[in-house]
Amino acid sequence: MRKKNTKSNGFTLVELLVVITIIGLLSVLALAAFSSAKQKSRDALRTADIKQMHTALELYFNEFGTYPSSLTVGQSIASNSVVYMNIIPSNPLPWIDGQCSNTAAADFSYVQDSPVSYHLSYCLAGRSGGLEKGSHVATPGGVADP
What we know:
By secondary structure, the chain is of the alpha+beta class.
């Protein structure tokens, strides 16, 4: 009499479910880490853009003794043949990012307070470049919380 071969060559249903569950958990963790990295990169870009605009405004002030009356996204900070900043950047999307509300984060907000003063408002979704998350204001004196 022959014995039946009871040894299986495939995976059981339980083994397959365990592997699928592990793959699903790893995917969720990777997606969360990727989302956090995207937020941090947007904040780093916001911080770098504000620093560049601040530098361009100071160079403009050193030349003319006054700050520009207005700034428009997509235009430049320039006068005569001197260009201080080629293109004024827009706030990276999405605007609503962490603690930044829709109105506070839409674009960088520039206001000339007087010929020798301005404030440039922006919002960070997380800690970036030594700055805490939330609303910030750049002035001729530097960057501060409002």
